[in-house]
Amino acid sequence: MKKLFTIALAVAAFVSFNACTSEDGYLDKNKGYIKLGVTIDDAIATRATQNANVAEWYAVVTNGDGDPVFGTVAAKALIGTTLGTTPLAAGSYNVAVSNFADDDDWLTANDGFGAAYYEGNASNQAVTAGNTTNVAIECGMAKNAKFSIASAGFSGTALTVNVSAPRTLTFDKANSTIDNDAFFAASAELTYTITYTINGITKTSAAKTFTLGGAGSASVLTIASNSNGTISVTITYDDEYTTGETSTITIDAATGNEV
Description:
Layout: E1 2-6, E2 33-41, H1 47-50, E3 58-63, E4 68-70, E5 77-78, E6 91-98, E7 119-127, E8 132-140, E9 144-151, E10 158-165, E11 169-172, E12 181-185, E13 189-198, E14 201-204, E15 208-211, E16 218-225, E17 231-237, E18 245-251
Parallel strand pairs: 2-8, 9-16
Antiparallel strand pairs: 1-2, 3-4, 3-5, 3-6, 6-7, 9-12, 10-11, 10-13, 13-14, 13-15, 16-17, 17-18
């Protein structure tokens, strides 16, 4: 599924030369402008990203000499309504976009659980005086990987999954669901433990490490238990981009160790 986000200019049409005149308030017939469109493949995106408008994204525009004319090379600028109203001298431009200003800002989003990160660029975009150039950028799939916890037939009264690496996160089960998704670098090694209470006895499993899927992948750790307190854990990563793999472990209820 693909979504197209665009930032609209103040004028309804820009095909005629007369549309780019000073009577529009900002358009200069001696300058050119950029109208930006961004396409992402939102298979693993959070709802916030799916509903995003390109105005909420970030960009840096550089001229043929590599000098920034919108944003900076170090930090992209919020697009808002500003990019579409920025007058540009006639020439060739490179445009880079992402849904975060810096490459690692996605890590701290959503209280540290992170968010899907997208980026893309378009090179050698010709801008001519008195005209607006449509620039379409295909960002494709997310550059990072999503990790989720699912509960399937868990009979206990408490369940948490604690991730200790590559950063510390805690997933709590409430009302049979765990709502948080977390995002990590593609193919990151993730270490976790499971703490659970079944039949009034609380146990913590031995630490387990596995490798997440690649860019754009969605890894799911599914936890189930039987009435005797034995827990089974299934790790699955599968999406439309990569070949899915499944790994299942069983944790002994008495020791908390993998069988």
